[in-house]
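Input record, target 12 of the design panel.
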């Protein structure tokens, strides 16, 4: 930021939070209308906001929310949900984003004491250098005519209902928070978070067509929910129309089968798109022609280890073992140590700083990548994010950190 020595960080309050929203909107070529500004005000924590001013204009923004996230297995930890990160087009390529990330991550570490940070990047090339690593999700694009189930697929008798706004919010919260018990990476939801998601669809903040909310119930208990919108090819609502699935959450195989069957058989629809589903979603195994799904694996939620000891002790591990990791973190200096991780007590592991020789040297991005349990060790080695110092430890790394369930975060924030 040498070119801008006059940049000042100022507090965000009721008097200037609209300016904060407008500055962030400009950077994303969005319109800061009344809904956009109120959407930010509803959940934003001004005390955690980073607003950099050039004289009286905001030129850099960042915020985070203190939330919780599910970890392997059936555990959860505090997390900083990072959002509203932007730099004005007039001030890009000057190191402003790097400076904000340094400020934010160190505050998350030292002030808010959250061991993890997560975000949804607008550009995936940006955040790896700040120590974030991606989880993965799938996107689908399929013609309804090709979306035929295998004849042997059986259906449990579950109740499917259209939901009002209030019912959708309640169902979303219940299903999402139950999902935390079986899948890592799920952010715990409050009513306010779910309400914002549903209102985004109702207001056409995300889509151009009418939106619908459908819940699936087993003995009156919600076990799944799907949100979708319909976009018609003309103003008269005639075919062909496209179906855009925004959220599809399910708690078991039976609810997954019934939800997908419902979505793939909506009348007057020609093309179906799913914006983000779990990496291990079941739909490909249900179809006669899974290749017609045009399934594309892409990055999902990005996660960053902020406090090594507290993060490694927060989750559980599938196998007993010991490993010494030497961590390199260019932003949070307190993380630059060698750590002994002992998972002999799987549900209450111990991690401590050690002076012993490391089994592996790992960047903070590499540690973030293996943290939720889905990783390819060869890719980590090839990327330079991990250096194996003790070849005997390779199987231990795989056994300790691997988890069966793939991480997935339904909520975008």
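The sequence produced for target 12 reads:
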């Amino acid at each position: 930021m040498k070119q801008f020595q006059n940049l000042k960080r100022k507090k965000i309050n009721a008097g200037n939070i609209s300016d904060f929203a407008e500055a962030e909107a400009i950077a994303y070529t969005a319109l800061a209308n009344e809904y956009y500004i109120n959407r930010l005000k509803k959940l934003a924590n001004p005390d955690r906001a980073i607003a950099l001013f050039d004289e009286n204009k905001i030129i850099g923004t960042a915020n985070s929310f203190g939330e919780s996230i599910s970890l392997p297995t059936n555990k959860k930890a505090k997390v900083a949900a990072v959002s509203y990160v932007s730099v004005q087009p007039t001030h890009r390529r000057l190191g402003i984003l790097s400076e904000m990330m340094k400020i934010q991550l160190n505050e998350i570490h030292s002030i808010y004491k959250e061991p993890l940070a997560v975000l949804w990047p607008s550009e995936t090339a940006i955040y790896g250098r700040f120590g974030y690593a991606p989880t993965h999700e799938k996107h689908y694009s399929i013609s309804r005519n090709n979306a035929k189930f295998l004849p042997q697929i059986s259906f449990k008798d579950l109740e499917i209902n259209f939901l009002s706004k209030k019912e959708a919010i309640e169902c979303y919260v219940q299903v999402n928070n139950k999902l935390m018990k079986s899948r890592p990476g799920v952010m715990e939801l409050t009513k306010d978070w779910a309400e914002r998601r549903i209102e985004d669809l109702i207001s056409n903040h995300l889509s151009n067509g009418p939106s619908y909310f459908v819940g699936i119930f087993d003995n009156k208990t919600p076990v799944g929910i799907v949100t979708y919108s319909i976009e018609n090819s003309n103003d008269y609502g005639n075919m062909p129309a496209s179906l855009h699935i925004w959220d599809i959450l399910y708690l078991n195989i039976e609810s997954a089968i019934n939800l997908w069957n419902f979505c793939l058989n909506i009348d007057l629809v020609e093309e179906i798109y799913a914006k983000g589903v779990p990496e291990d979603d079941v739909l490909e195994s249900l179809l006669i022609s899974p290749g017609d799904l045009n399934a594309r694996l892409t990055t999902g939620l990005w996660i960053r280890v902020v406090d090594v000891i507290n993060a490694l002790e927060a989750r559980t591990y599938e196998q007993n073992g010991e490993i010494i990791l030497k961590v390199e973190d260019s932003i949070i200096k307190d993380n630059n140590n060698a750590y002994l991780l002992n998972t002999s007590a799987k549900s209450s592991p111990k991690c401590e700083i050690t002076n012993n020789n490391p089994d592996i040297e790992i960047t903070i991005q590499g540690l973030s990548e293996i943290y939720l349990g889905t990783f390819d060790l060869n890719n980590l080695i090839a990327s330079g994010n991990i250096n194996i110092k003790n070849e005997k430890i390779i199987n231990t790394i795989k056994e300790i950190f691997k988890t069966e369930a793939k991480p997935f975060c339904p909520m975008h924030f």
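The longest strand covers residues 57-71.
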